[in-house]
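Late entry, evening session. Most of the bench is empty. Finally got around to the prediction I had been postponing all week. Sequence below, unchanged from the version circulated by S.P.
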Amino acid sequence: MNAPDHNALDNETFRALWRDWIAAHYPSTLRNPLQRLTGEAARRWLRAQWQAGWRAPGLARAWGGMGLSLDKQLIYQEELERHGVARPIDHGLRLLAPVLLAYGTDAQKAAYLPRILNAEDMWCQGYSEPNAGSDLANLKTAAVRDGDDFVVNGQKIWTTLATDANRIFLLVRTSSEDRKQKGMTFLLADLDTPGIAIRPIQTLAGDAHFCEIFFDDVRVPAANVVGRVGDGWTVGKALLGFERLSHGSPELIRHALQVLRQTGAALGEDAGAGFALLLAGFECDVADATALYEQVCETALAGGDADDDFSMLKLFNSETLQRLAEAVTEVAGQAGGLMGAGALPGLDADPEWLYMISRPVTIFGGTSQVQRNLIATRTLGLPRS
């Protein structure tokens, strides 16, 4: 479904139209930017956008997207955040679509992009393994060529919402004869293929978004290789770049800051004499993150390379979110350890849940250690150890 050409509108007209459409079509009960939108609720929301021509702001109109200019893409994201729209796990559009456009064949683009747009296919990402998390070059899941197929054996872990997905993009090892990075291949697979088993992992936050996936003699067509066989490291690194960019917005820390304000207001004088100083410090941190985000966006709008700055944003935002969640828990006192909203009278948020969901943010999209190494070597020009 082709979207109308919104680039013909001035920015404020576009903003008003998008804001009004969100208000009319997004369920008010799901307004929480820290919540993940999953399952059928995610499909309904994404499908509604597609049917109304509001899907895929950065995807070219030739491929069914909106093809928005960068300034309108920023407005698009700002209005989602302003309304408090929960985050759908849309790996197909956010991560895979840019990779297909850069490295996929015409047949792969024609087969997969329309199904991503109409939410017929929901994708998960198969990168991490029990002994290959941040060190992806150490992955062991093997794919051996057999006629027109690859036969895959191995295990993936921390695969977000594999239970909601029907397809997976994954890195596999197709060779061990050269250095580790040279023997990796980027592969697409159907999750209903015989030999694939999915096991959810219950987290401390009470959800089962993470999963283990086991591959036992799984046959995947060789036509499902994206890029060249053995060049998966290049494709995989590009995908991680798209993921880091998506984590650059200060939306989550702004929301967590509001929860901290509400916690102090609920406690009143019991919040303690140092609360105002604590709050002011975090207000400065959020203002810094917002300013850096705006600066990076301006660089991108001007056609500059902002990849290294997004690493800084990802690092600063994720660690600030963790510190904010810890502060909320400490300020809430005994109520900070109770599960469920309303544990503290006057506070609708759940401090314990906020604390638990903040723990993995310094891991996904590249760990804090990886981000520091990238900043040290690429931005500061320091020698590799």
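Two things to note before I forget:
The mean pLDDT is 88.
DSSP finds eleven helices and ten strands in the chain.
Will write this up properly tomorrow.
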